[in-house]
Amino acid sequence: MSLGMSIRDPHFGHPVYRDMPTTIFEKMSARARETGAINLGQGYPDAQGPQDILRAAADALLERSNQYPPMAGLAELREAVAAHYARHQGLDLQPAEVIVTSGATEAIAASLLALVRPGDEVLVLAPLYDAYLPLIERAGGRARVLRLAPPEWRISREALEAVRTDRTRFLLMNNPVNPTGIALRDAELALLAEFCVAHDLIAICDEVWEHVTFDGITHRPLIGFPGMRDRTVKIGSAGKIFSVTGWKVGWMCAAPALAALLARAHQFITFTTPPNLQWAVAEGLAKPASWFAAMRQGYQASRDRLADGLRAAGYVVNSSAATWFVTIDLPASGIAMDDVTFCDRIIDEAGVAAIPISAFYPTNAVTHLVRLCFSKADGVLDQAVARLAAFRASLA
Ligand code: GLN
Question: Whose CA is nearest to atom 4 of ligand 1?
Answer without folding.
Answer: 43
